[in-house]
Each structure stands twice: as C-alpha cells, then as structure tokens.
Amino acid sequence: MEPIELFSYWRSSAAYRVRIGLNLKGLPHRITPVHLVREGGEQHSAAYAALNPQELVPTLRHGDRVLQQSMAILEYLDEVFPATPLLPSDAEGRARVRALAQLVACDLHPLNNLRVMQYLERTLQASAEARTAWTLHWMAEGLAAMETLLADHLATGTFCHGDQPGLADACLVPQLYNAHRFGLVLAPYPTLQRIEAACLALPAFDAARPEHQIDAG
C-alpha cells in the first residue's frame, strides 16, 4: 500500500475526525504535526502553504496525491478503501449521515475555529468573556439541533446511524471534545453523550484523542 501521511494538529477537530476515519479503517499512517500556534503558526510556512494554500489542517498525502479538507479526505478514504465503510449502503442513509456530519463540519465547527477566535480577539478586540460567549452560543445551538435529529430517530442506534460508527460519529466526537474544553453544559444532550461514550470505548476513537497525539501539550 502507498504510504499515508496526515498533517495534523492535536487539538484540531478537523484533523481529529480524519484520525478517527483512518483508525476505523485500520489504515497505517504517519502523523506529521503542524503546530497552529507556535511561532505564529507553522501552517503559515511557505513549505506547508505549498501543500495546502488555505494554510489549514488537515492535509493528507497518499502516495503522490495531496488532499485537503477533512470531509473530502474522509470520503476519498471511503472510496479508495471501501472496507469498513464510513457511509451506509443506501442513498437515504448516506444522505442522513452526510447531513449530520455537515451540521458539525460546515455549520457548527467553523464558528469556533481557531482562526475565528483569533480574528475576534486581534481584529475585533473582543474580550475573553465575549469570545467564550460566542463559542458557547453556537455550540449549544448546533448540538441542540443534532440532539433533536438523533433522539428517537429509527435510524439512530448505538451510534449516530445504526450500530456501526461512521462519518457522523467521526464529526460528533471531536466537536464534543471542544464542548468539554470550553465548559459547555452537556446535560441537554443525552443522546449525544451516550453516543460519545460508545465511540470513545472503541480503540479507533481512543487512539485518535487529542491527548494521545505525539504533539499533545
């Protein structure tokens, strides 16, 4: 198999979801840390910008192919390595899982991303209290919607969709890591907490945790 290299930062939830996907599929890979804060952010170096012009993580290198954007990377892995699929086999199921995943990746996560926080602080001069309020507001709104979509839905099982973890779970768990980190009260989201516990009990999720990464700290 061609080598797989993931450019990652331990606390990046986008990189976290790709680590989960790689682990679920049992794909050997090498982690190359990209520190998003040290010395102004290693993602802004010329060498890294040549790989990812957005200067974001993750970036995945598979052989001579270079891919950006976590959701595109995960679907690429699902197509190239179809064993242990991240998406259901039926069109309706795939649409549901993609909707759940994109709720996090497209609507919720971008509003509490590092560069958004830095813009609020450095350009808009927002106080630490204001930045925290911003983060908690958007997290609570997005997670409330996800709780509603998952609770009592016939397709929800042990995990977001059925009894095998997949793309939606790979997005949910990193976002809940952020929620814990910022001190969001999670009592209103019992379904999300149940699914999180089921995921983190699996080696693929446990190994992907931020605190277990080589660049943690």
Primary descriptors:
217 residues; 2 domains; alpha+beta; Glutathione S-transferase Yfyf (Class Pi), Chain A, domain 2; 9 helices; 8% strand; 4 strands; Glutaredoxin
Secondary-structure map with pairings?
Elements: E1 4-8, H1 13-24, E2 30-33, H2 46-51, E3 59-62, E4 65-68, H3 70-80, H4 91-108, H5 114-122, H6 128-150, H7 167-182, H8 190-200, H9 203-208
Parallel strand pairs: 1-2
Antiparallel strand pairs: 1-3, 3-4
Describe the protein in words:
With 217 residues, the chain is an alpha+beta fold. The chain has 2 domains: 4-84, Glutaredoxin, CATH 3.40.30.10; 91-205, Glutathione S-transferase Yfyf (Class Pi), Chain A, domain 2 (Up-down Bundle). It contains 9 helices and 4 strands. It has helices at residues 13-24, 46-51, 70-80, 91-108, 114-122, 128-150, 167-182, 190-200, 203-208; strands at 4-8, 30-33, 59-62, 65-68. Helix 4 packs antiparallel against helix 6 and helix 7 (167-182) packs across helix 8 (190-200). The longest helix has 23 residues, at 128-150.
**Percentage of residues in strands:** 5-15%
Structural class: alpha+beta
Q: What's the total helix number?
A: 9
The shape, in one word, is globular
Task: Report the order of strands and helices.
Answer: EHEHEEHHHHHHH
Please, how many domains?
A: 2
Which blocks of ≥5 consecutive residues have pLDDT under 50? none
- Main β-sheet: number of strands, strand sense, barrel status? 4 strands, mixed
Overall mean pLDDT = 96
In CATH, the architecture of the largest domain is Up-down Bundle
Spatial sequence of strands, sheet with the most strands: 2-1-3-4
Q: What's the gyration radius in Å?
A: 17 Å
- CATH level 1 name of the largest domain: Mainly Alpha
> Helicity level, as a percent range?
40-55%
Query: Count the strands?
Result: 4
CATH topology value of the largest domain: Glutathione S-transferase Yfyf (Class Pi), Chain A, domain 2
Question: How many angstroms separate the termini?
Answer: 32 Å
